[in-house]
Design a protein that fits this description.
Two copies of one chain form a homodimer. With 412 residues, chain A is of the alpha/beta class. Chain A contains 16 helices and 13 strands. The first copy, chain A, starts with 18 loop residues before the first helix and ends in an 8-residue tail after the last helix.
Chain lengths: 412, 412
Amino acid sequence: MISLHTSPLDQPGTGDAGGMNVYVLEVAKRLARQGAAVDIFTRATSSTLPAVVEAADGVLVRHVASGPFEGLTKGELPAQLCTFAREVLRTETLHPIGHYDVVHSHYWLSGQVGALARDRWGVPLVHSMHTMAKVKNAALAAGDAPEPSGRLIGEEQVVAAADMLIANTELEARQLVDLYGAEPGRVEVIHPGVDLSVFGRNQPAAARRELGLPLDAHVLLFAGRIQPLKAPDVLLRAVAVLLEEDPELRSRLVVPIVGGPSGSGLEHPESLAQLSSDLGLDDVVRFVPPVDQSRLATWYAASTLVAVPSHNESFGLVAVEAQAAGTPVVAAAVGGLTTVVDDGVSGLLVDGHDPRDWAAALRRVICDPALRARLSAGASAQARMFAWERTAQLTLETYDRARSLMRMDVAV
Amino acid sequence: MISLHTSPLDQPGTGDAGGMNVYVLEVAKRLARQGAAVDIFTRATSSTLPAVVEAADGVLVRHVASGPFEGLTKGELPAQLCTFAREVLRTETLHPIGHYDVVHSHYWLSGQVGALARDRWGVPLVHSMHTMAKVKNAALAAGDAPEPSGRLIGEEQVVAAADMLIANTELEARQLVDLYGAEPGRVEVIHPGVDLSVFGRNQPAAARRELGLPLDAHVLLFAGRIQPLKAPDVLLRAVAVLLEEDPELRSRLVVPIVGGPSGSGLEHPESLAQLSSDLGLDDVVRFVPPVDQSRLATWYAASTLVAVPSHNESFGLVAVEAQAAGTPVVAAAVGGLTTVVDDGVSGLLVDGHDPRDWAAALRRVICDPALRARLSAGASAQARMFAWERTAQLTLETYDRARSLMRMDVAV
C-alpha cells in the first residue's frame, strides 16, 4: 500500500489524518489476518521515526525519506512525487524479485507513485481515491479554496492508469465513471467498516461518568478535523437557533467539538472558537483536542446524537462509528453519508446546511425520547452492516480481479 | 537529455524558452557531430507535435505526453514529475537494454526525473541547473515572487543524486558547493558557447538597412524574456534619465525591446509598455516580438550597444551573442555576466540597478566613438573564447568522469 501524504500511525482528527488513516490501517490489519502481508509506504515526517515500524502482525509501515520532515504543506507534496517514487523503488530492490503482488494506493498523490511502481514491478495497480477534487469543488464550503487543476489532472491520470478502482460507496463509483471516465468494469464498490469491539462496547451512562458529563444533559457531538469542508460552524449556528427558540434548553446543553484544525482550516485556527463567542455559545460549546479511537468511542457513547454536517464525505467514517456506539446521527444528505445513515431509522438526514433546518432536526431527536430510542437501536443495527473483515475480504478479491484485468502495458 | 518544462524546439525569448533552450539544442548538435547520438525528452505542449522530431543529424526530440498540452503553468509542473518519469521509462523499454549511456538533465524538474531514470537504467546522472532558486531569491527583482520552497528542496535532492554537475561559470560552481552542499569534485565548470557563423556574420550598416534603422541612430537594444528578473525597466528608466540630461539625443535614439512576456512578467504583460508611456518614451522605445536566431543576430549587429540589466544570470547568453556580433554590452555586474563581459574591454559592467548609473554607462558608449570602437573589437575577441564545440567536448569528458565517479547506489 502507498499512503504518501499521511501515515496510518498518525492520530486521526488532526493535521491531514482522518478517516482514510483509519481505513488504511484497519484494512491492512484484516488483510494480514487473512494471510496477505502488507507493507505501507508513507512519507517520513520526523527524524525520530524508524525506517520500519511493525504496526500489527504482518503490517509494516515503511517511512520513506523524501523532502524535509516538517514544514511541507500538502500543496508542496506534488514536487516530492518523483523522489518518493525513487525511494520506494529502491526499497523494493532490497527484496527478492516478485516481493510485491499488487500495489494499492490511497489518495491521488499515492496513485501517481503507484502507477510508476506498477509498471516497474509488473503488478496491478488498485487505487482508492477517498476524496476527489471534482466532487469537492462542486460542493465547496464558503471560504474554502477550490482544489488546484494539478490535482484534477493527477486524478484523471491515476484513473487511467489503475487496473482496478475501489469506491467506498455506489455514489463514489458513479462519480468515478461520470466525472473521471473510469471504465465501469474496473470500479468495485466496497464499504469501509467499523470495529464493533472498539466502538460498540461502551454504555452511555458509564461513558458520561468517565467524561464528567451530567447524566441528564443533551450532548450534541461534532468529531472530525476542523475545516470548512466538515462544516462544524453549521452545528454551532443550528444550536444558536435552537437556544433562541427554546432558551430553557441552555442549562442542559453540551456541544463538544472533538478535533483539531486541518487543511484550509489551519489558516484560521481560531475562527470556530470566535464563532462560538460571537453566537454567545461559550457556556455550551466545549473544544476537545483530537483523541484516540478508544477515547473517541467513549465520546460517541456519551452523546445524545452526533452531528455530521459536512459539505461532502466520500464515506463518513464518523457516522458509522457513532452508530456502532448506538448513537443516532444527524447528517447532511451528501456523498457517502446517504449510504451510511438510514434516514429515520439510524439517524436523520438533512438537506442543505440551513441552520434552521439543522435546528429542527436536532430538536426532533432531543425532544422525542421514543424517537431517540428507536434511532439508537437502528444505529446499532446499521453499524453491524459495516465490518472491516468484509472490507478486507472484498479488497482481496479485487486484487485478484485486478490481476486478471491488468492493462496490457509494457513493464518497465 | 531531459528538458521537461521547455522544448529545445521552442522559440527563445518567449514563454519559458530562453538561453537554456539554445544551450540544450546547440550542445546536443555538437555532441551528435562528435559521435554521441542524443535523445531529448520534453513534455508535449500541443496535440499537433509528433512523438519524435529529428532536430538535427543524431538529435531526436521526444515529446512525452504528461498532463494537458496547454494551460499548465510552471508551478503546476511538479505534479507531473511522476507521470513524466513513467512515460520516459516506458519509452526506454522500446529499445534494447543499455540503449542510453548517460542521463543529462537540465533544470531541477528534469533532474528529479533524471535521478529516477539513472537508478533504473544503471547509468550516471549529469545535471545542469541553469538557474537556482537560492541564487534567484537572494537577488529578487522588486515585484518578483520568490521561488517556492518546493523548488529549493527539489534542487537540493538533485544535487545529492547527481553523479556530476555542470556549472556554466566558476561562480555557479561556487554557489552549488556553498549553497547546495555539492561535493567540489563532482562539479565541472563548462562555459556555454556561441555560434559565430550565426552571430558573427552581419555588418552593422547592412543590418540597419535590413531593419529600417537610421544609420546615424543610437540603437540601445534589450533582448530577452520580459519579466522582472531580466529588468528591462532599468534600461527604460536609464534612457529617461539620459534624455532629461541631454534632450538633443532624443531624435537619434532607438530602444528596441525584442522579446515576449514570461514567468511572473505574464501577470502584467502590459506593464513595460505602460512604463514606457509613463516615462514619455513611446517615440524612442520599440516593442518587437521574439525573433529567430538569424534575425536576432541582425538586431545585435544593428545595435550601438546591448543592455543586459538582469538581476541575475547564470551565464547570460544574450551578452555573448551580442559580443559575437561585435556589439559592446552594458551589463549588470551579476552572476555569469561578470565572466562573459570583460569590463572596459568588451563592454561595461554596472554595479547595481540605479538608473543614473546606467544612464552614465550608456552615455559613455554613445558619446565616445573611440571607446565604442575599442569595445567592439574587444567584444568580437571575447566571443571567440566561447565555442559550442568546446562546450560539447568538455561535456563528453564530464560524462566519462560521471561514469567513473558514479555513486555506489543500487540500480532499481
